[in-house]
Amino acid sequence: MTRPPRATILEACEPAGWGARVAVSSIERSGEAADVALVRLAQHGDAAAFDRLAAARIDRSYRLAVAILRSEPDARDAVQEAFVAAWRQLPKLRDPAAFDAWLERIVVNACRMALRHRKVVRVREIDVSDPPEPRAGAREVPGPDDETASVDLVRRALGRLDADKRAILVLHHVEERPIAEIAAALAIPAGTVKWRLHAARAALQ
């Protein structure tokens, strides 16, 4: 089965101009060792350490939330709630090295809660007017709109998936996370991740 193109899925879920400010931290190391050190500092109340952890992860968390909720305002609210919850619950995290999977689980749970409490049905206006008839003998010439149409098709395909399948698709194909990490983030067996990923891919065909 053909893998859906990562760039197209990324563009379909990409936040529009939403960035994060990087906080200053006293830790100069980079990589996993620095992250573990930052988590431990944050667990003891160091807000600057948590700001740095959040700044490095806020864009991908937002992209994940957009894919699940299909609404940028709702995604912003869910991510904000998720990061507030993460700050409050951080002292309970037993393994600082598992911070990423733990945070993603909180983001997904915040999105699930948003879906449960969503009461307003958003209706999108659709142009139902008939398209103009092509001229006899005219040839269809591919243009810049082809890529836009491809992204729109992916958005629609994502819309047919449930929240968990959208999350898995984005985590695997956009964030390039391995099956084991996705399973840890969603607290489900690796076999379930594989099955949902297969179903999500099939929806994009």
Summed up:
62% of the residues lie in helices and 0% in strands. The chain has 205 residues and is mainly α. It is globular, with a radius of gyration of 20 Å.
Describe this structure in words.
Helix content is 62%, strand content 0%. It has 205 residues and is mainly alpha-helical. Helix 1 crosses helix 6 and helix 4 packs across helix 5 (99-116). The longest helix has 23 residues, at 47-69. The chain is globular and about 45 Å long. The relative contact order is 0.15. The model is unreliable at 1-7, 15-29, 119-135 and 137-144 (pLDDT under 50).
Kindly list the characteristics that best describe this protein.
205 residues, mainly alpha, 9 helices, disordered N terminus
Helix residue percentage? 55-70%
Q: Overall 3D geometry? A: globular
Span of the ends, CA to CA: 9 Å
Query: How many helices in DSSP terms?
Result: 9
- Report the structural category: mainly alpha
Mean pLDDT: 74
Low-confidence blocks of residues: 1-7, 15-29, 119-135, 137-144
State which percent range the strand residues make up: under 5%
- What's the order of the H and E elements? HHHHHHHHH
Radius of gyration: 20 Å
Say how many strands there are. Answer: 0
Biggest sheet statistics: none
